[in-house]
TrEMBL record, chain A:
InterPro entries: DUF742 (IPR007995). It comes from Streptomyces durbertensis. PANTHER family: DUF742 DOMAIN-CONTAINING PROTEIN (PTHR36221:SF1). This is DUF742 domain-containing protein. It comes from the Bacteria.
TrEMBL record, chain B:
It comes from Streptomyces durbertensis. This is histidine kinase. Its EC number is 2.7.13.3. The keyword Disulfide bond does not apply. The chain crosses the membrane at residues 16-37, 44-64. The lineage of its organism: Bacteria, Bacillati, Actinomycetota, Actinomycetes, Kitasatosporales.
Length: 119, 561
């Protein structure tokens, strides 16, 4: 992240706590994690905070929180706070990723493979 | 006496004769009396007349001599009075004109000898040598004292600026490291919150160091090479005050501030915002707006605190005016004076116009006018997170694509890669266009790190090949979306690939392996990683659309050849 940091440092004088308004964690939707998918329900409106507008623009199609964080060059905590704002105003939808539990048990697959090989 | 009636310019002939007339009259009277009386009495009368004539002559001569002496004395007195008046005038001039002038020139940094030499012939004309020497001695003493004091103040200023610079360097380094840590610990909310607090404290220290540097006559802090959007500048100012959460940022006109003026403006705003938050009740908000006016951009800071009385307002504005005179150590003690002195200095140096008025909210409204010369609409430095891109998307003319542009799936997924690169260049170097940061950047400094993946994932039916760019800027510095023209018939890609414009992320990721060797996958493609991850975790094959995309666009089909 060093390269991104230099860009940041060169490009913007504001610090992260101003972007989040001093919050370091989402207040309502603490279930947001790295792989939560975010979809914008509407486009950005004039007068929005630029980061909010940027999230709305890039989440036109579903994006994970980690991706949004990477594109914005902002730490995940900041992004979750921003997405939390958007969630509470109903501008985006958060969708939990498909749970890994739905996959067949790898051990079962292995057992099947072994069984097939033994045939 | 006869000389009383004589013209004053010619007293000498009359005074020479003045003793003759009474003597002659007395002699004539004595002779007449001697002739008129009887002859027996003639002798005594003659003698008496002679005595009277002689004594009259003596008295008249003495009177004439004294008259001449008195006239000479009167002339001497007049001459001395004139000299005295000249001396007084010269002394007054020394006190009222020369000394202030000399002190002013010394304060401006002129050398003492130059100042004295400049006064050489001007000093006390028409006075005696002793007087001139005395005046010169007075001036020399004053010049010595003032220059010694100025030297002392200069060295104190230099010492302050030196210390402030060192503190600034440490703070800057610390801020960079904190930023690193914030990135590193971004997922741990507790640690991140602590880091934010530390970051805030560091910014406050930095502001204090900047203030001392400004009062010491130096620039505040760091330099900015490129224009910075006004929105970022305002938030930069907010970053440096204690109560930044109370500042409400309203509409901000979309302009940028030229590089050299960025840091002074941030610092001025920080001091004004600090005053506004400090002198208003903690539960009130401070409103910050920026609108364009004829002479530039007007930044208004309104608080809901105590209104300024007319007298206090005048005092504050006088403080702003007086800020020019250099570092006053007393300023460092009191916060409002320190802040206003800094604001005044910066305003003077950069032509900001600051005025304090009574606000409609009942508090103080500070209006800061940034002159037009410091405002630019040139491409600003808004980076990937879309700073300054506060407006919604706006339509732009599309860049018509040429058929020679590469259209590998990876390139489409990369999205950001060749955005804005002229088609000819893209044709010349098809491999490079698939990289997130092509070596040849578009001339108007578009941001290519911004939204690469979203475009890749974005599916808009037949328009899927025109990839919108997120943080592009018009020549006027405004954010915009731009469609990226995609090639219809790439030379290197399999023919089937270009037929259907809709390319899913998953298939694109898989297609990378089948691409010609020159078109390797971009090193950093978060969208791709996540898409592959999603498709992997959802247990679907790479040929099938990923889970999220399936829900979005069920009709989408794979491009896998």
């Amino acid at each position: 992240m060093r390269g991104g940091d230099e860009e940041w440092d060169e490009g913007t004088p504001e610090r992260l706590y101003v972007i989040t308004g001093g919050r370091s964690a989402p207040t309502e939707n603490s279930s947001l994690d790295l792989v939560t998918l975010i979809v914008a329900k509407s486009g950005p409106t004039p007068g929005m905070q630029p980061e909010h507008a940027a999230i709305l623009r890039m989440c036109h199609s579903p994006l994970s929180v980690a991706e949004v964080s990477a594109y914005l060059h902002l730490p995940v905590s900041v992004v979750t706070v921003l997405i939390d704002d958007l969630l509470s105003t109903g501008r985006v939808l958060a969708r939990a990723p498909v749970a890994a539990a739905q996959l067949p048990d790898p051990a079962l697959i292995e057992a099947v493979i072994h069984g097939l090989q033994r045939l | 006496m006869t000389h009383a009636g004589s013209p004053p310019g010619d007293p000498r002939p009359a005074s020479a004769l003045v003793w003759v007339l009474p003597t002659a009259v007395t002699a004539a009277a004595a002779l007449t009396a001697a002739l008129l009386v009887s002859p027996g009495l003639r002798a005594p009368i003659f003698w008496i007349g002679l005595a009277a004539t002689l004594s009259t002559a003596v008295v008249a001569a003495e009177a004439a001599r004294r008259g001449r002496a008195a006239a000479a004395l009167r002339q001497e007195v007049a001459a001395r009075e004139a000299a005295l008046a000249r001396q007084e005038a010269e002394t007054v001039r020394l006190a009222e004109q020369l000394l202030p002038h000399v002190v002013a020139r010394l304060r401006q940094g002129d050398f003492p000898d130059d100042v004295l030499a400049g006064l050489g012939e001007d000093l006390s004309p028409g006075l005696t040598e002793e007087f001139r020497a005395a005046h010169r001695a007075v001036l020399r003493t004053v010049v010595d004292v003032v220059s010694a004091e100025e030297d002392l103040r200069d060295s104190a200023q230099r010492a302050f600026v030196n210390i402030a610079r060192r503190v600034q360097a440490i703070v800057h380094q610390q801020a960079g490291e904190l930023r690193d840590m914030e990135d590193r610990h971004g997922q741990n909310h507790e640690v991140f919150g602590d880091l934010l607090r530390l970051d805030h404290g560091t910014a406050l220290i930095g502001r204090l160091a900047d203030s001392i540097a400004v009062l010491g006559g130096a620039r505040p802090g760091r330099q900015w090479n490129r224009p910075v959007p006004l929105f970022s500048v305002l938030r930069g100012g907010m970053s440096r005050i204690i109560d930044y959460q109370r500042v409400e940022l309203h509409s901000v006109t979309e302009v940028a501030v030229v590089g050299p003026a960025v840091e002074p403006l941030i610092h001025t705003l920080a001091e004004l915002l600090d005053n506004a938050t400090r002198y208003s009740p903690p539960q009130t908000r401070v409103h910050l707006t920026a609108v364009e006016v004829q002479s530039g951009v007007a930044i208004e800071i309104e608080d809901g605190g105590v209104s300024l009385s007319e007298e206090a307002r005048r005092r504050a504005e006088r403080m702003l005016q007086q800020a020019q005179e250099g570092l006053d150590l007393a300023d460092l003690g009191e916060t409002p004076r320190l802040g206003l002195a800094v604001v005044g200095r910066l305003a003077r140096a950069y032509d900001f116009k600051v005025s304090l008025r009574t606000s409609a909210y009942g508090g103080v409204r500070a209006v800061l006018i940034v002159p037009q010369e410091l405002i630019t609409t040139a491409p600003a430095t808004g980076r990937a997170h879309g700073i300054g891109a506060s407006s919604g998307p706006r339509p732009t003319p599309t860049t018509t694509g040429s058929a020679s542009a590469p259209a590998s799936a990876g390139g489409t997924l990369g999205g950001s890669a060749g955005v804005g690169v002229p088609a000819a260049r893209a044709a010349a170097a098809p491999a490079t266009t698939a990289r997130p940061l092509p070596p040849a950047r578009p001339e108007n400094d578009r941001d290519t790190s911004g939204g690469s993946g979203p475009e890749g994932l974005e599916k808009r039916g037949v328009e899927a090949e025109s990839v919108p760019e997120i943080t592009e800027r018009t020549p006027s510095g405004l954010p915009q979306r731009r469609r990226r023209a995609r090639a219809a018939a790439p030379a290197t890609a399999p023919p089937g690939r270009s037929v259907d414009p809709v390319i899913s992320a998953a298939s694109a990721a898989a297609a990378d392996t089948t691409d010609p060797p020159g078109q390797e996958a971009p090193p950093v493609q978060p969208g791709m990683w996540m898409a592959a991850f999603q498709s992997g975790i959802s247990g679907e094959s790479t040929a099938a659309p990923s889970a999220g995309q399936t829900q979005e666009k069920p009709s989408e089909k794979s491009e896998q050849p």
